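dude i think i finally got it to work??
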Amino acid sequence: MNATPGIDRYALDYGWGHEPGWTDETEITLLGVIQGEAATTAVREWVASLPESELPRERGRHYHGGATMEIVEDGPSGMRLALRSVGEDAFDSVAWYADVVADLVTEPGDPATTLTWTQLPFGAKP
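look at this
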């Protein structure tokens, strides 16, 4: 993977699971903030291509491979994307999809594109 200015490549962090309150039933949330019109369009189209969750508690989320993706804010100032997962492989799942998102936002080649990631505290709303 090449380093791209402004694009934060999330580093898998198993230590996140050692924070107080985590069990293998705890939902983790990795929040991505994306800026750049071509980048947000690419992410919006990708999320829309994924199946929607049918679980009432996951209304508005799309899922794939052990994680859900939800655009929690989408406007002129950018997009906030929540990647969530539960279970033993939760950390691997969100890291995998964070890489997918980083590839998507890098593809258009817009130097004004930015991507940052934040691990939310357990139970926090994005």
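The longest strand covers residues 67-75.
im so relieved honestly
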